[in-house]
Amino acid sequence: MAAPHFTLSPAAANETVGQNFVVTLGVDSGTEKVIGIDIKGTFDASKLEIVSIDKGTIPDDGYLFTYTPGQAIIRNDTGQFEATLAKLDSNLYTGVVAKHELLKITFRPKAAGTATLNYVCAAGSISDVNIINQSANDVVDCASNQSGSYTIAERDWRDISASGDIYARSNDYTRADINFRVVFFNFDGDSDNGSFT
Fold first, then answer.
1. How far apart are CA 124 and CA 18, in angstroms?
2. Which end of the chain is more exposed for a tag (fewer CB within 10 A), N or C?
């Protein structure tokens, strides 16, 4: 039986600059019955930024908690986020085994390279991630927490999305070069959108 820990899904992926992707934060409390959860994590702020943090899919018999959009603290400048997931009902001493999603983070890659995502966890600390059991003890096993690694590739400016967006890196191509290349598009007046003629 696994020790109580937090999960990431996916824990590894290949992504592209400018194209959002979602990572699901989850919990596996093993046999422990949970009455409280705190989330705290770090990410590579030079390569990623958080767009939003939303509530995951929670089963009816799972750890039910209160969460509203905007509740999480997001620090894109330093690469940190945190959220306290308070128990929904008023019975603070009756917990449940929790093995499910908690939160979904939407990231936007902003630079190529390898970006990391980690839970902040130190044995004996209560100022980081916590899985609180019915005896009011933090039972998270820091060594069992999953970490994430995401390979970010540059987006080719010639890639055209479903909406017809054109992506260009101004430091790779001169304005004249870009203008020459997009002459093959028929624009509808919006310089960000076009279609093949």
1. 39
2. N
**Alpha carbons 5 and 182: distance in angstroms, whole number:** 51
Residue type, 14: N
Map out the domains of the chain with their CATH numbers: 5-153 (2.60.40.680), 156-197 (no CATH)
Q: pTM for the full model? A: 0.79
Concatenate the DSSP letters of all residues of 61-128 into one string: TS--B---TT-SEEETTTTEEEEEE-BSSS-TT--EEEEEEEEEEEEEE-SSEEEEEEE---TT-SSS
Q: Please compute Rg for the chain using Cα positions.
A: 21
Contacts of 170 by beta carbon, 8 Å cutoff, 6+ apart: none
Q: Please choose, from the candidates 37, 39, 46, 47, the residue with its C-alpha nearest in 3D space to the C-alpha of residue 17.
A: 47
DSSP 184: G
Residues 44-73: tens digit of each pLDDT? 999 999 999 999 999 999 999 999 989 999
157 φ, ψ (degrees, to nearest 5) = -60, -20
Helix (H, G, I), strand (E, B) or coil at 152: strand
Residue found by looking up tokens 């967006």 in the block: 165
- The DSSP output letter for 3 is P
Residue 163: other Cβ atoms inside 10 A: 8
The length of the chain, given as a count of residues: 197
**162-195 pLDDT tens trace:** 444 444 444 444 333 434 344 334 444 444 444 4
